[in-house]
Amino acid sequence: MGPIRQFVLDLQPSGIGQIAREGLDDPEVIPLWFGESDLNSPSFVNEAAKQALDDGKTFYNWTRGHLPIREGLLRYHQKHYGIELDEDRVSVPGSTMLTVMITCQCLVEPGDEVILVSPYWPNIRTVVEVLGGRTVDVRLQEGPKRWWLDLDDVKRAITPKTKAVYVNTPSNPTGWVMSREEQVALLMLCRERGIAIISDEVYHRNVFDRPSPAPSFVTLAEPEEPVFILNGWSKGWAMTGWRLGWMVHPKQLAVPMAVLSEVNNTGATAFVQYGGLAALDQGDAFADEFVARCGRNRAMAQEILGSHPKLDLLIPEGAFYLFPRIKAPMNGLEFARRLLREEKVGAAPGYTFGEGNEQHLRICFALSSTRLETAFMRIRRLLDRI
Ligand SMILES: Cc1ncc(COP(=O)(O)O)c(C=O)c1O
């Protein structure tokens, strides 16, 4: 045994990466496996970042984010959530992904347990395990009309080793949007048991049939309690490649956050932060139009796939994924492989989103409607054939 951790040597890409590797370079494949659209980032965002480059925003700076972007976040929270946030609670260390890692660095010691509300985005599990923690799945209830969380399931999963509950709302991959009542109930339980909440709200703008943004723990958490609200620019403003996210954390962590941010990334890329600031200040119309486009795509999915006898499909309330159960003598991975080979459509196999999801498939519906319609017709063709 050499010095490299066996855990690291054993790491494998998630099921999304596994299947994408099989068809990533094929231009005929319609890619519905990743969580992004084919829209370019808004031009006013690009312009702001270019201007920042020309203005010399290329130096080290405050590792919790440049002052203008943190002030922009305070305005954003005031405007969209009606709250006055303390500046000490807001940090911009880099990507949303990094806020997940840093939050877990604050909470997870070897042997600790983190409850993951499942189905979940696979990276959260890897983060907990990298830090020596253990994940415990609590699966959402499936149907009849929507996914929902049974709080008794969470209660049953809590042990003396439980440090945190991770929820992602709106959810990747189910599209579940946690109601305010559900959030209050979970918060009460966690307060009572001394457990932290990690609320991943990166899809906060991506909600249907209700005002945007989605209900947030940010309006409920007391400034000093262990509730971490993680967010970012990727999903609301078509900015996945910018690698920019923010977190709202307990006030007493302002100084430790500066240090953790420093040792993880030494702050978010300087000029990129100014693109993010433009999105916060001027990006409402873009975010709303993007949701409208995804809403039309969701309606098309319902029309083409919704009533297919070989699919159980709950209509997502948010984010931009379908997460149907395949009712056929093959699992989600086999279906995804055949879909790729025979119909040139890339989808993610359900198993990668936690136990109990082996019959499922994740399909991103954020692409332009013409490509998406072709992809949905191809999926239907394969379903008809199997
Ligand atoms: C639930 C969830 N959280 C966090 C992230 C990471 O976001 P970012 O790309 O902004 O780092 C993703 C990305 O797909 C996600 O789906």
Topology, number of strands: 16
Fill in the CATH topology of the largest domain: Aspartate Aminotransferase, domain 2
Q: Which band does the percent of strand residues land in?
A: 15-25%
Structural class: alpha/beta
What does this structure look like?
The protein is an alpha/beta fold. It has two domains: 6-41 and 285-385, Aspartate Aminotransferase, domain 1; 48-282, 3-Layer(aba) Sandwich (Aspartate Aminotransferase, domain 2). Helix content is 40%, strand content 15%. It is built from 13 helices and 16 strands. The strands form five sheets. It has a seven-stranded mixed beta sheet with strand order 2-10-9-8-7-3-4, sandwiched between helices. It has a three-stranded antiparallel beta sheet with strand order 12-16-15. Strand 3, helix 6 (123-130) and strand 4 form a beta-alpha-beta unit. Helix 5 packs parallel to helix 6 (123-130) and helix 12 (332-343) crosses helix 13 (369-385). It is globular. The model has no long low-confidence stretch (mean pLDDT 97). Pyridoxal-5'-phosphate binds next to helix 5.
